[in-house]
Write a structure and sequence with these properties.
Radius of gyration: 17 Å
Structural class: alpha/beta
Largest sheet: 8 strands, parallel, barrel
CATH class: Alpha Beta
Strand order of the largest sheet: 1-2-3-4-5-6-7-8
Helix content: 40-55%
Number of strands: 8
Number of helices: 11
Distance between the termini: 27 Å
Strand content: 15-25%
CATH superfamily: Aldolase class I
CATH architecture: Alpha-Beta Barrel
CATH topology: TIM Barrel
Order of helices and strands: EHHEHEHEHEHEHHEHEHH
Number of domains: 1
Length: 263
């Protein structure tokens, strides 16, 4: 059973699923007018290689994923019922139009500004609580699971749950920056505490941002209950060296190592 599309799957024994963020493929394509690389074709290759989902983050300026890509990928995912389509973005910008039209498996609410370089912080509570609640409810009424992009703050998890959201995606940039340094253990402990608090509040867990082949297994070994990781930049960069199919298989091996019994 795919933990991406099975909301009841949350035990530690359930292996984390890999969702490939294809924004950077679109960014490369957009530098010319030739239609290559083909976002849909490469997404299919990722799925064939074992990815359990595809993630996109269509920004209002369409600097990478464009509206047509989102619709084309939704059509592709209809042929992959065991895989998930996750659309990320700010629900106060252009995101809800895609949710209403396409009803993806999951929507990840991210509090980024229109011109932001990349997502770099999570929602703030109680400041964002009242305005998020009706949009969470609207998405859920359409049959769409809602995840909130969150910093690893244990004290914020109960408030995140009070929006009605089913999941949070832990923003992992601080962990990635600390990996391999003396600060790694302390930073990772904060993520573990945030995950414990989220699970105690009744939330399920996703994670993403700057995870890569070097740091992924360590993160998953330490942080309980992560159902999904969404990885884009590092995975697409690795694919330039290894090929996309081989890269997806390598990331799956990283996940497998995290769940292997201790020796």
């Amino acid at each position: 059973m795919n933990p991406l599309v099975a909301p009841e799957a949350g035990a530690r024994t359930q292996r984390t699923a890999l969702s490939v963020n294809v924004n950077k493929i679109a960014l490369l394509r957009n530098t010319r007018h030739l239609g290559i690389p083909d976002v849909v074709k490469l997404s299919r290759i990722a799925l064939e290689a074992g990815a359990q989902g595809i993630t996109v983050h269509p920004r209002p300026d369409a600097r990478h994923i464009r509206a047509q890509d989102v619709h084309d990928l939704a059509a592709l995912l209809k042929a992959w019922p065991e895989a998930e389509f996750n659309i990320e973005g700010n629900p106060f910008h252009n995101l809800m139009d895609f949710v209403r039209a396409l009803k993806p498996h999951q929507v990840t609410f991210v509090p980024d500004s229109e011109g932001q370089f990349t997502s770099d912080h999570g929602w703030s509570f109680p400041a964002d609580l009242a305005r998020l609640r009706p949009l969470v409810a609207e998405a859920q009424a359409l049959g769409v699971r809602v995840s909130l992009f969150m910093d690893p703050l244990p004290e914020a998890m109960a408030a995140a749950r009070s929006t009605g959201a089913e999941r949070v995606e832990l923003y992992t940039e601080t962990y990635a920056s600390a990996h391999g340094t003396p600060e790694q253990a302390g930073v990772l402990a904060r993520f573990t505490a945030a995950a414990d608090a989220a699970l105690a509040a009744g939330l399920q867990l996703n994670a993403g941002h700057d995870l890569n082949r070097a740091n992924l297994a360590d993160f998953l070994r330490a942080v309980p209950g992560v159902l999904e990781v969404s990885i884009g930049h590092a995975l697409i960069a690795d694919a330039l060296e290894l090929g996309l199919a081989q890269t997806v298989r390598d990331y799956q091996r990283c996940i497998q190592r995290a769940f292997a019994p201790a020796r």
